[in-house]
Amino acid sequence: MADSTSILRAEHLSKVFTSAAGTIEVLKDINLEVSQGESLSIRGESGSGKSTLLNVVSGLETMDAGTLAWKRKSVAKGKVGGRPIEPIRAGFIGFVFQSYYLIPELNAFENILMAARLKGKVTSQIEGRARELLDRVGLAGREKQGTTQMSGGERQRIALARALVNSPELVLADEPTGNLDENTGEVVMGLLLDLCKQEHTSLVLVTHNPEFASQTESEYFLHSGVLEKRR
Amino acid sequence: MKGNKTPRSYSILNGHVLPADIIIFLMPWYLYHALKQLFPSGRFFSFFSCVSIIGVTLGVMVLLIVQSVMNGFGHEIRKKVADFNGDVRIMNGGIMYNWKEVRDDLESNPAVKAMAPYAGGVLMLQHRRIPAFPIVKGVDILTEGDVVPMRDYLQSGKLEDLDDDGIFLSIGLAQSIGAYEGSRVEVYTPLMLERMQRDEILLPRELTVRGIYKTGYGTYDTNTIVVTLRLMQELWSLGNGVHGISVKLDEGVDVDTFTANLNKELVDSPARAVSWIETNRDLLFILQLEKTVMFFIIIFIIIVASFSIAIALTMSVVRKTREIGLLVAMGARPSKVAVGFMTQGVVIGLVGAILGVGGALVALHFRNDVVRALAKITESEAAFLRFYQFADIPVYYLISDFVLVVVFTIILTTLAGLIPALKAGRLKPADALRSE
After folding, report:
1. How far lies B113's CA from each of A82, A164, B100, B116, B146, in Å?
2. pLDDT digits (tens, 9 = 90+) for B45-104
């Protein structure tokens, strides 16, 4: 079970996109709470607002109404408790994307350490953690390999290690198996769930796959901007 | 961040620590990211950085080569002009009879290395019925060699051989009238023309060519002659007078300052000091103008290279939109993303400028071999020597030129990186991550 300590709380959150074609309310009165160590999944049709929800709760996108707090500190207008959001986000949230988003000019090890660089400086301890994560995702000895020479599954494993290298409180995974075949997807998903559990890191998983969603502690469904708890 | 979850401790790069590794590990992320974009892991260069750096290098190289050679030509011409006339001339606008007093007064001046009286004018010269109207300079054989390196100029004959029945011809003039050492030429002075108007019988003065000289400066080599001062005094009826005194200054003495100070001392005298710089102001202005114009023409190579960098970096921002979104998601500040892209422009400019300076120095070192090889291939060695009057291509390095070119290059390439940097810095992370 998840700890009772809330690390993310969104209340009455809404988001509207305005374009020449008109306005669309993508998120409607969303309430979501994530406790420390908890894993939850969000399913929904394409265009239902799943990625937008992750962007809003991570502070990458501004909300139009509602409140958001990370560890009880208010998040608004690019600030967390009055301090700039970027350095705090670097240590608080780890991201895993469907398309991996690895930097092609860096090798596998450098890609993992990039997250640490963005948080601050690279120390021998961080370097050790990066090696350890590389080992745990099954890619020990592949440090210097270019990521463009890796398979999709291997790239996503590097992305998992990168998301966890700063020991974040929360991992936001946006369809992490969307670009992988069924078997590789299962392996990667297993790794993601195991690592988060071992690290006692909270996980918000956006997925289309009901089987993967069922492996998390809670299940939500997003339909036309409305978030509904299923389990 | 949660507590210590690292079960094992590691040293940087498995204990093999190099100074460069430490710098890389401590480097701010945006500098690291910029350098990795230019010099990716597993490859020494990216295609973009390679082409951009070559463009800047070529621009800097060409600019420095042209500037240094222009300086060299200018320096040679200045040297030849100053050598042939002396650094300063003291004249009174007519015949100077008190020149010995002026000379004696100046002898105690520590800036003065040597002095020589002279007289000058234009006369008519004829050899085998071929006439010419050269500028003549009458020199004191005993002192002229200390002011003007006449001995170095002489292609045939000796300075000491010049007597009152002799004449030195410039090489171009000698060729045009077909005279050589030992030839006899006839000279007619303006004074003779005056006598002719008084119905006196006109008898030219016959002189023997005692030597042929070449200064290396076309203007002097095509239409000048040298005779003794005594002969000039006789032909121009100057008596003991001269037209002026040539002054050679010690190395390092500022010619303009010396001339200005001397003119203050000569304020009560009809004499006036004129520096070679003042006498040749138009020539020096043209030399400087040529150099400036060449700079502005060639700088366009670097401007074009900078535009290419700006386009390539803008394309890179477009291509890497999602990567920029990722960096911001992972904790990068948009302003630092912008600095990272601008750094790429700075690094290209810096590396290009360094390689350009190095390339220019190497090319200038081997300039004569390259030009000789080209002249040999095109069979134009003789034409080259005849046309440029220099056996070797002269070069004069000016630190100020190098500093100007390097600073200008880095400013241009930094500006080239600024536009894409601003574009990258303005990207909204969520939009960037959503982009296709």
Report:
1. 77, 81, 16, 11, 8
2. 788 888 889 988 998 999 999 989 988 888 888 888 888 888 999 998 889 898 898 888
CB-nearest partner of B9 from A117, A125, A201? A125
User: Cβ of B192: how many Cβ atoms within 10 Å?
Assistant: 18
How sure is the predictor about B11, in pLDDT bands with cuts at 50, 70 and 90? very low
- By Cβ distance, the residue of B331, B428, B429 closest to A118 is B331
- Decide: pTM greater than 0.95: no
Instruction: Give the tens place of pLDDT for each residue, B338-351.
Output: 999 899 989 999 99
The B-side interface with A (CB below 8 A) comprises 1-2, 5-13, 25-26, 29, 32-33, 36-37, 40-42, 46, 322-323, 325-333, 428-430, 433-434
- Over residues B409-413, the mean pLDDT reads 90
> Mapping DSSP to helix (H, G, I), strand (E, B) and coil, where does residue B365 land?
helix
Shortest Cα distance, chain A CAs vs residue B345, angstroms: 17
Give the distance from residue B365's alpha carbon to the nearest chain A alpha carbon, in angstroms.
38
- For residues B30 and B343, the answer to whether their CB atoms sit within 8 Å is yes
In chain A, the DSSP E strands lie at 6-19, 22-35, 39-44, 65-70, 73-76, 79-80, 83-84, 93-97, 170-174, 202-206, 218-223, 226-229
pLDDT tens, residue by residue, B260-270: 998 888 888 88
Can you read off the two tokens belonging to residue B125? 């010269």
Measured over all CA atoms, what is the biggest interatomic distance in chain B, rounded to whole angstroms? 122
Mean pLDDT of A18-23: 85
Residues comprising chain A, all counted: 231
Q: Residue A139: how many CA atoms within 13 Å on its side-chain side?
A: 29
pLDDT value of residue B253: 85
The secondary structure element, H or E, covering residue B137 is strand B135-139
Residue A149's contacts (CB-CB under 8 Å, 6 or more residues apart) are none
Which helix (H) or strand (E) segment holds residue B422: the answer is helix B399-426
Measured between beta carbons, which residues in chain B are less than 8 angstroms from residue A90? Answer: 330-331
Size of interface A-B (CB pairs under 8 A): 109
CB atoms within 10 A of CB B431: 13
Coil vs helix vs strand at B18: coil
pLDDT digits (tens, 9 = 90+) for B273-313: 999 888 888 888 888 898 889 888 888 888 888 888 888 88
Q: Long-range contacts made by residues B284-291, C-beta under 8 angstroms, separation at least 24?
A: B284/B78, B287/B70, B287/B73, B287/B74, B287/B77, B287/B78, B288/B74, B290/B70, B291/B67, B291/B70, B291/B71, B291/B74
The whole-chain average pLDDT of chain A stands at 91
In A, what residues contact B, Cβ < 8 A?
51-52, 55, 58, 60-61, 84, 86-87, 89-91, 95, 97, 99, 101, 103-107, 110, 114-115, 117-119, 121-122, 124-125, 127-129, 131-132, 144, 146, 166-169, 199-201
Which pLDDT score is estimated for B370? 85
Give dist(CA A62, CA A66) in Å, integer. 11
Rounded to whole angstroms, how far apart are CA atoms B18 and B24? 10
Residue with more model confidence, B5 or A45: A45
The burial of B122, by beta-carbon neighbours within 10 Å (0-12 exposed, 13-18 middle, 19 or more buried), is given as exposed
